[in-house]
Amino acid sequence: MEEESESTTGPNWLDLPSDLTENILQRLGTFEIVTSACRVCPQWLNICKDPLMWCIIHMSYVRKSPYAFQNLVKICCNVIKRSCGHLENIDIEYYCTNDTLKCIADNGSHLRCMWLVSCLGITNKGFSEAVRKLPRLGEVNIIFCIISEVSLEALGRSCPLLKLLKYHAWYPTRSCNPEKMALAIAETMPGLCHLDMKGHNLSELGVRAIIDKCPVLESLDISDCHYLSEDLTKRCIDQIKDLQLSYRYKCKQMRQLL
């Protein structure tokens, strides 16, 4: 019986090497680490205090959270500060405000990748001021946030290493002019390799400017651009390796093949 109980006893998690424990903890979301995991034991708390633990931050939307929105924003900012300048990759869903962006800018001089998802609390001014302090950004993903060509121009002028831009929109808004956004991208992001503008109905002029002034572009999603000329469509097909066009152009191509 004694041997049986010994064989069914689980492993002692405190015996794991620190680097392995850190690897396991990093698989949790930021909220779970800060509110639960770091309270398990002193060893886990010390690991969570290590700035290198926060090179990558994922702050996902928390359903039915007992914390108010502003408290969750504060949690996010506190975690960013814990990185002590080691932050390289950040992914924030819902809880990013101008204050959060300022915190990222003040602590993320090595930031290379940024995801902002459904963060309606950010403004052009807050975004523009932040990216001016983030020159190493190479990948920016903006999903269902509302920023205009002002922010895109600041991003392009401040981040010469930018290779990937994904900016998805729910629906057109008065504050977002697709043509001006396309021109801002074309004028300030010549080194762009991947561009995804799903949800934006870019004009013929805007798409042409991007094709002309982003010579190393490999992938382009303009699946919500419905009124491109045949000449420009053909040029996009010839020039871009991975091209996502509107459904109407795909149907036209299929009819031509039949």
TrEMBL record:
Q: Name one GO molecular function term.
A: SCF ubiquitin ligase complex binding
What the entry lists under PROSITE patterns is as follows: FBOX
Q: Which domain of life is it from?
A: Eukaryota
Q: Which residue ranges does the record assign to the F-box domain?
A: 10-57
List membrane-spanning regions: none
Tell me, what's a Pfam family for it? Answer: F-box
Q: Which SUPFAM superfamilies has this protein been placed in?
A: F-box domain (SSF81383), RNI-like (SSF52047)
The record, for PANTHER family, names: F-BOX DOMAIN CONTAINING PROTEIN, EXPRESSED (PTHR38926), F-BOX_LRR-REPEAT PROTEIN 21-RELATED (PTHR38926:SF2)
By what name is this protein known?
Answer: F-box/LRR protein
Q: What is the species of this protein?
A: Medicago truncatula
Q: What is the lineage of its organism?
A: Eukaryota, Viridiplantae, Streptophyta, Embryophyta, Tracheophyta
